[in-house]
Structure formats: C-alpha cells, structure tokens
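Tokens in:
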C-alpha cells in the first residue's frame, strides 16, 4: 500500500523496549556482559525520580530500558510480582505522537498516556500511549525536537566497563502470546486500530508436533519496519509452549524479541562465549537440510555446531536460532536472525524448534 495515502499511523521504527525487572542494575550488567549492549542513560533518585530507577542500553538500533521499583507499592512492583521480569512497553518512534494517539484512540484503543510533553536542557519530547494485549503498552515517541542522551529526565550514563558488541543490529519482530481464542481479536486490533496488515498466518497444521501446537498470525505496519506476530495455543496431547508461557507469566505478554545480525555465526559464537544459552538442535536436522532449502553461502559445519536453523522462501533464505528463556520463569527469550533475502519467519523450522522447546518443557515438568 502507499503509505502517504493509506497509512494513518506512520511509524519510523522501534524506539525502545522497556522491561520491568526486579533489579535493573544487575539486569543492565547482564545485557552488557552477555549481549554486548552499551551504557546510554540513567534516571533515578540522582536525577529527581523518586519511585524507580531506569537504565538505558543500546546496540546499534536496538535500545532497551530496564526499570525497577524502589518501593514495594505501586504499578511497577505489582507488575513484577505477577509476571516476573518482562516487557512492559513496546515503544515506537513517530513524527507526531499526538496524531498517533488521536488516530488510535478514536479507532477504539484504550488510552494509557495522553499526549505529554517532557522538557529539559536538551529540548523536548512528546509521548503518548495505548494499551494492548495483557499489561503490555505501546508508547508513541516523538523526539524530533530533542537531542539529549535518551529522553528528558535521563542523564548520560558513562561507565568504565564497556564490552564490545555482538553484532546485533535492530529489532526484526516482537512476538506476543495471547490466550485461547484471542489471536483474531488482537489481530483485528492491530488491523483496525493501528492500520497494520496481515503478512502471513500459520495454523496448527503448520506449527505442531506429536504433543503440542499453536496458531500464529503476523501483523505488520505500512512500511514493514514493525512486525508483531501474535500466537495463541492450539489443542494438542500435552501443554504447548504458549500455555506454559501464559501459566508462568500469568497472562498475555511478549514471548520473544527477534534481533537481526548480518553475521549470525559471529553473533551466536560471541553470545555463547559470554554465557547465553541456546536451544539444542539434534545433529540429524542437518543431514538433509540442504536438500530442503537448497544452496546457501555459509559453511554448514559451524551452523551445525552452533545449532543454527535454516529456511527458505520465494525471496531468499534465513538463518535463525533461539535462546533458552532469559528469566527463571519460562517466559521471555530471544531469537537471533540473519535474513539473506527471505521475508518469512522460518515456517520450515517450526517442527524442529517446537521439539527443542518441548525437550526443555519436559525437563521443567511442564509439558
């Protein structure tokens, strides 16, 4: 579609992802050490914020905000008590936060933040927000008149410890898990309220094993920079990964964040060397993989050794791998993806991926 004519909610890209966590200082150290993020900004008691501390980290175009409450009462502490550490906000960079709020709320979105202007010596930024699935929020961030380190109220965070990055470039997509029968409701929300289009859908015939299944639809904004797959459980002999997530997160929420690299072997090697744990893929997966996906530019040996999956669509192929959950609860995990032309989401890998996840579920006693 032509964005100028039909896209009533133009989005420039992902602005940041905010997590509510039990200990933001330690979580920030984890993301620096294990994933190679860099210190950017901080807000807390030292900057006049009395109820929370927030650390901002960045790697290329990926920006994370880690926020912890300073007292047991309040919405942040309640969120952590219920969900554990998890994603609270998927913030989107827009040119006009007021227009974004008006367009979405007039189409039925529930307001989370009316347009608000924040100011400091670096200029001003305007934010607005709406509710989406579970306790997750979308914020619209307008920062064209701001040149500070992050947003007003934050100060630059300089640190002596600055590990090298791991080649992560930008957010490719963010996946939401919702409850039984809720996928179409939330896909309609993104279609009708935010003007997204459905890219692709998968049903339980596409994403299933002997034991469990799920259904998924991928929603994308007008320019394709924001992609939100929405998963719901499907009936199976045993409990699916979506059910396990909802049981432990106590509701709908962000299941995984897919981040792009242009050298997946380097990135995954670096992450693994720093302690990031990945799902195990049996070596047999690779015995006939090239017969299925055709020729690739990479040497197969390191892909096999690291457990990197391969899939092809009509536009090219992709390489992908999934971490184990990065919290103690079996909830949030990460996908590392390198696209070599492919625009899809690894449909050919679903069975192998599910079986890997089921092995972990069985070890946890949750299958």
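Residues out:
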């Amino acid at each position: 579609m032509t964005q100028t004519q039909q896209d009533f909610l133009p989005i420039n890209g992902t602005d940041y992802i905010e997590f509510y966590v039990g200990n933001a200082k330690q979580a920030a150290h984890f993301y620096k050490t294990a994933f190679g993020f860099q210190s950017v900004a901080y807000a807390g008691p030292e900057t006049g914020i009395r109820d929370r501390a927030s650390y901002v980290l960045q790697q290329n175009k990926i920006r994370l905000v880690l926020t912890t409450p300073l007292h047991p009462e309040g919405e942040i502490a309640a969120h952590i008590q219920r969900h554990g550490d998890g994603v609270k906000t998927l913030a989107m960079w827009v040119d006009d936060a007021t227009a974004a709020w008006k367009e979405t709320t007039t189409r039925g979105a529930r307001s989370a933040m009316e347009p608000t202007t924040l100011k400091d010596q670096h200029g001003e930024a305007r934010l607005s927000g709406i509710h989406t699935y579970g306790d997750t929020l979308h914020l619209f961030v307008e920062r064209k008149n701001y040149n500070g380190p992050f947003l007003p109220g934050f100060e630059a965070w300089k640190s002596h410890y600055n590990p090298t990055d791991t080649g992560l470039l930008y957010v490719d997509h963010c996946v939401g898990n919702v409850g039984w029968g809720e996928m179409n409701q939330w896909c309609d929300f993104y279609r009708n309220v935010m003007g997204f289009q459905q890219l692709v859908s998968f049903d339980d015939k596409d994403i299933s094993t002997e034991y469990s299944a799920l259904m998924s639809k991928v929603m994308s904004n007008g320019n394709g920079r924001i992609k939100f797959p929405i998963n719901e459980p499907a009936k199976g002999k045993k409990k699916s990964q979506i059910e396990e997530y909802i049981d432990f997160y106590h509701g709908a929420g962000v299941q995984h964040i897919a981040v792009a690299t242009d050298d997946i072997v380097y990135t995954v090697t670096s992450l693994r060397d720093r302690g990031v744990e990945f799902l195990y893929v049996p070596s047999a997966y690779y015995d006939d993989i090239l017969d299925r996906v055709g020729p690739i530019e990479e040497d197969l040996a390191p892909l096999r050794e690291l457990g990197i999956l391969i899939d092809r669509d009509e536009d090219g192929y992709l390489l992908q791998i999934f971490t184990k959950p990065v919290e103690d609860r079996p909830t949030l995990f990460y996908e590392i993806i390198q696209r070599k032309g492919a625009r899809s989401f690894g449909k050919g890998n679903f069975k192998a991926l599910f079986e890997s996840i089921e092995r972990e579920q069985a070890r946890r006693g949750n299958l």
